[in-house]
Amino acid sequence: SKGCKLVGCGSAVPSIQISNDDLSKIIDTSDEWISVRTGIRNRRILSRKDSLTALATEAAQKALQMAEVDPDDVDLVLLCTSTPEDLFGSAPQIPKALGCKNNPLAYDITAACSGFLLGLVSAACYIRGGGFNNVLVIGADALSRYVDWNDRGSCILFGDAAGAVLVQSCDSEEDGLFSFDMHSDGGGQRHLNASMKENKIDHELGSNGSFLGLLPKGSSYSCIQMNGKEVFRFAVRVVPHSIELALEKAGLAASNIDWLLLHQANQRIIDAVATRLEVPPERVISNLANYGNTSAASIPLALDEAVRSGKVQAGHTIATAGFGAGLTWGSAIVRW
Ligand code: ACO
């Protein structure tokens, strides 16, 4: 059977930077409170004029350049996002913008902060199933568009970004995606969501018998609702276990990995997971101080920085994990 390997990565962030001090001008908070509780100092946000799809395209372009793969050779584009610019899916806009003349399959994957991980697994399934050779997995989110900027417990956490990885088919001996572990728990949805607004229905049926009164007025989602303490507890409980399961499937121990690369939600979550797995701080990748929690983009963004700075090198083994709304979570053991 076929193997899969990661052959390129890229990322892109908006130019507007918002510091903790900037936030303290609109809500009752401080740089000290935010950095001590979360490790976050800055985040980037997309302006109204900017396009998340364009940011995702830029990240994908850089991944193709690194891999030296022609856009026409891409046969699948998975856009992992919970904030598409088209409710029907933004993914097909990316091969269009990349100039792929082969009309590759492209669709969105919605799984918040676990999205990139699910994209990676999906890419592996397509490649191993046969017929697919170059799969672009893009994580891109603009949660700033769904944040309640009056809620100081959540608005301090999030930032916008895009990151991409090109997954390519290879001989099975070269396989670089060793194992996965994936889960969901819909019972925890109440702790983190951006659900459809509960529109008040004025009347059961219109006086003329029309059904239109039964339908929601407009179509809007509420802002992000989060119980920070519950989300924190959830992450620290499930992530170490999930990584242990994935390591076991790969026949590896935590001491065998070169890097621990978690979804960048909160430095305290990262530290707690690393401590539990006994991974020393010098083997933990973290860049959330600069970008905050960028949802589906956080893992490929941090990977891209670590690869381009020379930290992550060819042949290194990485344990990665995503976790977030749904609730969903999952881990993968991969080789760069
Ligand atoms: N500035 C100052 N004070 C604040 C702020 C703020 N930004 N936010 C909350 N507070 C106050 C609260 O009002 C509360 O005050 P009180 O004691 O007078 O009532 C006090 O600080 C403590 O609030 P808690 O919510 O209990 O603070 P906690 O220590 O739990 O920290 C935090 C909150 C940082 C959100 C933490 O719970 C956390 O990081 N949780 C994980 C959240 C997360 O990572 N979510 C996303 C992951 S999934 C995904 O990526 C989509």
TrEMBL record:
<keyword id="KW-0275">Fatty acid biosynthesis</keyword>
<feature type="domain" description="Beta-ketoacyl-[acyl-carrier-protein] synthase III N-terminal">
    <location>
        <begin position="107"/>
        <end position="186"/>
    </location>
</feature>
<keyword id="KW-0443">Lipid metabolism</keyword>
<keyword id="KW-0444">Lipid biosynthesis</keyword>
<feature type="domain" description="Beta-ketoacyl-[acyl-carrier-protein] synthase III C-terminal">
    <location>
        <begin position="247"/>
        <end position="336"/>
    </location>
</feature>
<comment type="function">
    <text>Catalyzes the condensation reaction of fatty acid synthesis by the addition to an acyl acceptor of two carbons from malonyl-ACP. KAS III catalyzes the first condensation reaction which initiates fatty acid synthesis and may therefore play a role in governing the total rate of fatty acid production. Possesses both acetoacetyl-ACP synthase and acetyl transacylase activities.</text>
</comment>
<keyword id="KW-0808">Transferase</keyword>
<dbReference type="GO" id="GO:0033818">
    <property type="term" value="F:beta-ketoacyl-acyl-carrier-protein synthase III activity"/>
</dbReference>
<comment type="pathway">
    <text>Lipid metabolism; fatty acid biosynthesis.</text>
</comment>
<protein>
    <recommendedName>
        <fullName>beta-ketoacyl-[acyl-carrier-protein] synthase III</fullName>
        <ecNumber>2.3.1.180</ecNumber>
    </recommendedName>
</protein>
<keyword id="KW-0276">Fatty acid metabolism</keyword>
<dbReference type="GO" id="GO:0009507">
    <property type="term" value="C:chloroplast"/>
</dbReference>
<dbReference type="GO" id="GO:0004315">
    <property type="term" value="F:3-oxoacyl-[acyl-carrier-protein] synthase activity"/>
</dbReference>
<dbReference type="GO" id="GO:0006633">
    <property type="term" value="P:fatty acid biosynthetic process"/>
</dbReference>
<comment type="similarity">
    <text>Belongs to the thiolase-like superfamily. FabH family.</text>
</comment>
